[in-house]
Amino acid sequence: MASGTTTSPVSVVIDANVVIAICAKEADKLPAAEAQLRLYAGKGCQFFAPGVIVAECLFVFCRKLNDGVLSPADHGKALNNFITLMQSIHPPPSGDKSLIPRAEQIRAGLGCSRSADGIYLALADELSKTTSTEVITFDTSMPNQAKSSSVISAIVVLPTIPPPLPSGP
Asked: pTM of the entire structure?
């Protein structure tokens, strides 16, 4: 389910929802997230994310713990998985502060709830100046946000597995 994928990206911006899917072992998203990361890694791609990924992931892991979606043991595993995965994800080459003006341009007119997406898209824009870049996400609205802001990087929206139909008598 790609929106404008390139043939061979060099840089891949990973949205927090992909990292959360992998680290928290989300059954509806895990297969697609792991397969896509393996594909990119096999092509020698470099992975990037802005610093906001840490706060986004920690918030969701905490929420999953509080809501009983993750047990305390599974929460600890998710945190350890997150630490391990982040070892292969690079920060923005020019730092997060370099993303602020473009992120605000991208967010303008879309509302405050799209601020974090703007940072990921700004990072993709920055990287695309020197390398072929894709963004991977489960956020189906991100391609439209990118298009409306003239972000030139491809946005790859990963598929989710629909929940099984309830079985009845």
From this structure: 0.89
- DSSP H stretches of helix in 24-163: 30-42, 52-66, 72-86, 100-107, 115-128, 142-148
Q: How many domains are contained in the chain?
A: 1
Residue 164 in domain: no
On whether the CB atoms of residues 32 and 67 are closer than 8 A, the answer is: no
Q: pLDDT, tens digit, for every residue of 3-30?
A: 444 456 799 999 999 999 999 999 999 9
Q: Which strands make up the sheet holding 2-3, listed edge to edge?
A: 2-3, 154-157, 133-137, 11-14, 46-48, 89-90
In the numeric block, which tokens belong to residue 89?
Answer: 């994800």
Range(s) of the domain holding residue 39: 2-157
| Residue 165 counted as domain residue | no
